[in-house]
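Onboarding guide, step 5: your first structure request.
Type a short instruction followed by the sequence, for example:

Predict the 3D structure of this protein.
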Amino acid sequence: MLSRVAENLYWMARYLERTENLARLVDASASLMLDLPQQLSPGWQPLITITGNQLQYQELSRDYSEKSVVKFIVSEPKNPGSMLSSIARAREIARTVRDILPRDVWECINQLHLYLGEHAAEAAAKRTRYAFLGHITGCTQTLTGMFEGIVNEGDALSFLTLGRNLERADMTSRIVDVRAAAMMAAADEEELRPFESVLWMSVLRSLSGYQMYRLKTRERVHGTGVVRFLLAEEHFPRACVCCLRRAEEVLHRLPNSVPLLRRVARMRRAIHHTRFESLGQGDLHGFIDRLQLSLARTNNELARVYFGGHGESSSAITPIRVA
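The system replies with structure tokens like these:
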């Protein structure tokens, strides 16, 4: 497979996964606003922090209102990490690799791009937001099923799988970092104590993990349990360790992958050996910073080994406070 084709497939999968993750994040945040008293609501600014696009947002607006933040994340053309920008990039890539993908995949991506462009305004209205985001999530999940169900096993599927799982691990770490830090900082506030479980449930719902958490742990929702589940649970598809394990399985089938396998194995071991119950806010943040830096270096190493030394000039979502 040509290195440029491999790179295109890798980034197409990342952009599609990013679109789904952002849709889930907006949906879960909107639900959280309804569950909390208005004076205790965390607001919409944390969503900008999670995406790492604070500078781009501040160039456009200083207003962190619901309407402004949702528009920026869903459809702002000047935001390279918006859902609309991500789908546009995925569609352009899919167009260039149509000869090696099933026709159904191209048609689904094209239809999703058209739908998002025509209906993006529905995300701003509470009455239509749920259906709009649900449609986006459903389409991206359909594409994931297509990749696993009708794409031949081989290099194409390998790079699609790598892109999807590294993007998932990155977004999960971002959500845990920002949301956990905010809730740990607020843990001593007496007004928020009755809503602690609701806040942690929103973190799980950002990744559609609430029911799987309850099924796996069979315990009440609490901070340490949620952090451990989303970072270290081997069998939850959006947990960092599970994403890294799936990436590792793919790398075993690719040539020249030994340096990458070592890097991924180090990340997995670091997560497994961490005692999350003993981590304070600063310690957890530092741990996730190192994890995100390792994920970024893994992306760069992939570009060096498989993409002819060049990668995407920007992931369009920058690391959170990582140099």
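Each response can be followed by summary notes, for example: DSSP finds 14 helices and no strands in the chain.
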